[in-house]
Amino acid sequence: MLINKLGEFGLIERFRRQIKTDSTVVKGSGDDCAVIKFDKNNYLLFTCDMLVEGVDFLPREKPYLIGRKAIAVSASDIAACAGKPLYCLVSLSLPKKTSIDFADKLFKGMRELCRKYKINLVGGDLSRAGRLTIDVSMLGQVKKKNLVLRSGAKYGDIIFSTGKLGGSIRGKHLRFTPRLKEAKFLTENFKINAMIDISDGLAQDLAHILEASKAGAALYEELIPLSPAARNFAEALYMGEDFELLFTLAPGDARKIPLKKLSGFTPIGQIMGEKYGLKLVDKKGQERAIPARGFRHF
Amino acid sequence: MLINKLGEFGLIERFRRQIKTDSTVVKGSGDDCAVIKFDKNNYLLFTCDMLVEGVDFLPREKPYLIGRKAIAVSASDIAACAGKPLYCLVSLSLPKKTSIDFADKLFKGMRELCRKYKINLVGGDLSRAGRLTIDVSMLGQVKKKNLVLRSGAKYGDIIFSTGKLGGSIRGKHLRFTPRLKEAKFLTENFKINAMIDISDGLAQDLAHILEASKAGAALYEELIPLSPAARNFAEALYMGEDFELLFTLAPGDARKIPLKKLSGFTPIGQIMGEKYGLKLVDKKGQERAIPARGFRHF
């Protein structure tokens, strides 16, 4: 029996069930970052993301942008937990026939994004392989009182996203800004109950929040902020790699969010009971169940 | 111009020169682990290692042993800095046609080694790819007073290795024991000046110590503890993946090392001045310069 029978999330769940961690681990596998006890006021955040040529980027993409993306996806995971990225390592496997010019530009993309967010690139590993593969592991820090996980969404919470959604494949997936400032602003000024970055697609990542929070949700079609790059509404729902933040907070707090601040905050739905499932409400007020579908590796 | 013109270490050096880190980074790229300020008495250690099918293991190897090795190589890096491994993440890219049985065994190998050394496996990333690639990033901790880097070797130091060397390709590279106990014993009882794990081969890894310490060294052919798996002496010098510790300490201390303790400690040479270079002394006392050769990806 092959792993695609289980699917990506089935396989992850199979692995997760077998893992035991000690009491220093606040949150292991199953969120955007692992959360580890650190000091009186802070947790450590620990995350990794692997980019594979032909899956996460095409061989013809600019190496500068590939390098940039490799750092940005991990920074986006740190943002999703409301933390500050501090240190990263880069494991890189390169084909023998890689040019020095390509390697230089790849590295420049990494270095510049690290410098922009004051992330220390502290080392890595270099290997030969048939295809370019980059794995970035990142360490960050978050104030205990600011930590946000996927599991905290509450009945009645308003669901927001940052920025605009859909059509990321047409360029944004290589050039996106990890929403670190937005996460900092939100958690320093509001009580955010749940947060995730939209890497697999709005429907699927919202489903991750719903599963972790044992909740349902209604999304309002009219409210979802469509990116000009999106060709249709389905792309905003199911296409991955927007790398916007999806978060929930109580209605009273939600009213106070300055909608135009930073990359923009848009209310797009509401948390419901678990039995409600995940539904899309169209312009006429008609509800229909939508699948928790999105990008999956298997 | 292609990267093999620079070679693995030339490319790493090219990248390293361009990196700046802040004052919280005690040691960035260029040792077995990155060393980061943590609390009053301890540093954080941060390391990653990528294993690629066809380079670091053959597709026909047992998945349990591949998984085991993926964790063990990073634990060995933590040992080389005299630390204790605490947390790890696993980035895994798998071919679509991987069987669930293969994935289960791969994961079992990782899990069991983690359990043995009390390492918390706190998450990871799963991706699709043409070939199996595993990148493990690991966080550890070391008492400030016990930290050992490559750069501390001093003129006159005796050079030791743990265990036996050579022929690792015939099985040990998949089954080796990371020398965590040995590192702990050594640093708690002696003043170890420099240490590295032998991953690229004795000659090359000793050369890393010599370069970082601006020193030379004489190795005594007769003293080098040859593994029964080694077909000849050159394999002990130049074949990679022994994953034994190579360390140096002052002659006065060296005399007190219990040679048969744990995996065994064998004095194999002495640190000389930088101009001396790296030389092998044969049974007749003849010296000859040897190349800092070993496994290289490019």
Number of strands of chain A: 13
> What is the mean pLDDT of chain A?
96
Main sheet record of chain A: 7 strands, mixed
Give the oligomeric state: homodimer
Strand order of the largest sheet of chain A: 8-10-7-11-9-12-13
Relative helix content of chain A: 25-40%
- Just name the CATH architecture of the largest domain in chain A: 2-Layer Sandwich
Q: What's the gyration radius of chain A in Å?
A: 19 Å
- What's the shape of chain A? globular
CATH overall fold name of the largest domain in chain A: 60s Ribosomal Protein L30, Chain: A
Structure report:
Two copies of one chain form a homodimer. With 298 residues, the first copy, chain A, is an alpha+beta fold. Chain A has two domains: 3-145, 60s Ribosomal Protein L30, Chain: A, CATH 3.30.1330.10; 148-289, PurM-like C-terminal domain (Phosphoribosyl-aminoimidazole Synthetase, Chain A, domain 2). Chain A has helices spanning 7-17, 63-80, 100-116, 172-175, 180-189, 202-213, 233-238, 251-254; strands spanning 25-27, 34-37, 42-52, 84-94, 120-128, 133-143, 158-162, 194-197, 216-220, 245-249, 265-272, 278-281, 287-289. In chain A, strand 12 and strand 13 (287-289) form a beta hairpin. The first copy, chain A, is globular and about 55 Å long.
